[in-house]
Amino acid sequence: MRSKLGRKRGRAAAAVELAVVTPVLLTMLFGIIEFGWIFTVRQALVTAAREGARTAVLPGSTVADVEGRIADYTQPLGLTGCTQDISCDEDGYPDGTVTVSIPYANVTLVGDYFGCVVGDLTATCSMRKESVD
Question: Residue 126 forms beta bridges with which residues?
Fold first, then answer.
């Protein structure tokens, strides 16, 4: 049978181990969550750029049509602060190249905890506009 002093030392050792391991485990957990969220945002940007380019190559489409289509894919995730670069031909109609970007600082869940809140997440898609003249 263990003495009372032995049980107290065992509990104290367990408390110290928990105090050492918990920050490491929480950092790993939040890192996994952050990576998953950033991956989701990146995929939303890729889809928004692709759908914007798809709309841009339709005959008679306008920049407002393309912006609306991009918003259809970015707003459900609450992505505010997205910038869109829609290239246009000489007549002012979109020609099929769309770039969508958002600052990383606008989408991070953990702030600057990992020290990588720099730059933008960007997606570009280009499609050929075909027409029968």
Answer: 97
Question: What is the sign of the dihedral through the CA atoms of 111, 33, 47 and 79?
Answer: negative
C-alpha span between 20 and 113 (Å, rounded):
19
Strand order in the sheet with 120-126: 83-88, 94-103, 120-126
Sign of CA dihedral 40, 42, 45, 50: negative
Per-residue confidence in pLDDT tens, the chain, 133 aa = 556 655 666 778 888 889 999 999 998 998 899 889 999 999 999 999 999 999 999 988 899 999 999 999 999 998 888 999 999 888 888 888 999 999 988 888 877 766 666 788 999 999 988 776 5
Under a CB-based contact definition with an 8 Å cutoff, are residues 99 and 124 in contact?
Answer: yes
